[in-house]
Design a protein that fits this description.
Number of helices: 10
Strand order of the largest sheet: 1-2-3-4-5-6-7
Distance between the termini: 15 Å
Order of helices and strands: EHEHEEHHHHHEHEHEH
Helix content: 25-40%
Structural class: alpha/beta
Mean pLDDT: 95
Radius of gyration: 18 Å
Number of strands: 7
Low-confidence stretches: none
């Protein structure tokens, strides 16, 4: 059984609509896929219909932006109730602040580049969570950079003079909100140092004590040593070790199913989730 528990669609910063992602997952030979768009569940309904048609099992989820002592953390939430008030409030605030941050960044970038907010909106799907990837896509379309990667390495880098932070709740608060919503919290790419600073192992232990259920061990942004260390840490802390592609369509090099999750881990994860149902063909 091929299981990929971290993919994105145009509901956030992927380049394919939720239905297209489900069809692509089936074509890639996946049996199970989790749709985990940033700070939104807007793609769940469309993905559910398409998953049934494509013969793929869908695990509804989201990737929630949070932080610990100013260090960014991405928390995957699976099978939570999308209408739970506490979690919905956190997601709504983060989405609103992401939008405001994007506008502020584009305003600054526009002083030096031929880029406007209207250019960016051409690359944002209906009700999508707006982020830097949409700014990158607009810059590519206007010939200002060659790729998303170049945009993130230069103008959109978190050390660029154009960069602006956005609101992100404390990770422990997010873990507790996910649990209250009947969801299962798994930290995404915890050793992805190329993205910026990563949290210490002690922070991961604290989040496990707060109710976090798993670690994304197998991921493109982890080298072999990272994977060994994270798998050992997951064993010590009683966390579920997952594996995922972090697929974004053409927005990243990541390919569907390039890293996967063991069936017994999926079974344990699904047993923990009570806020939403897995969608089966």
């Amino acid at each position: 059984m091929a299981i990929d528990l971290h993919v994105h669609s145009t509901a956030s910063d992927g380049t394919e609509p939720p239905a297209g992602v489900m069809r692509a997952a089936a074509a890639a030979g996946l049996d199970v896929v989790a749709l985990t768009d940033h700070d939104t569940t807007a793609g769940w309904a469309e993905a559910g219909v398409a998953a049934r048609e494509a013969g793929v099992t869908l695990v509804p989820g989201a990737e929630i932006s949070c932080q610990v002592h100013g260090i960014g953390v991405h928390m995957l939430s699976y099978l939570h109730d999308p209408a739970h008030p506490a979690l919905l409030a956190e997601l709504s605030r983060t989405r609103h602040d992401r939008l405001d941050r994007a506008r502020r960044m584009v305003r600054q970038i526009g002083h030096d580049y031929d880029l406007s907010w209207e250019h960016v909106l051409e690359h944002v799907g209906d009700d999508a969570t707006v982020g830097r990837p949409h700014i990158a896509d607009a810059m590519v379309a206007r010939g200002l950079v060659a790729s998303r990667d170049e945009a993130f390495a230069t103008v959109l880098h978190n050390r660029s003079r154009y960069y602006r932070p956005h609101h992100a709740p404390d990770a422990a608060v997010v873990v507790r909100a996910i649990r209250a919503a009947g969801g299962v919290a798994v930290m995404a790419h915890p050793r992805a140092g190329r993205r910026g600073r990563v949290v210490a192992d002690a922070v991961i232990a604290d989040l496990a004590a707060a109710g976090m259920a798993g670690l994304e061990v197998d991921h493109r942004d982890h080298d072999a040593g990272d994977r060994v260390a994270l798998r050992a840490m997951a064993g010590e802390l009683g966390l579920l070790p997952t594996g995922s592609s972090d697929y974004h369509g053409t927005g990243k090099l990541n390919e569907l199913g390039e890293f996967t999750t063991a069936p017994e881990v999926l079974e344990a994860l699904v047993a923990l989730g009570t806020g939403a149902e897995v969608v089966r063909p």
